Amino acid sequence: MQKVNLPGPWSRRTVLTCMGRMGVAAVALGALPVSVARAAVQKISQKIAQYQDHPKGTQHCSVCVQFLPPDQCKLVAGKIIPNGWCIFFAPKPNAGAAPPSAS
Ligand code: SF4
Question: What global pTM score does this model have?
Answer without folding.
Answer: 0.59
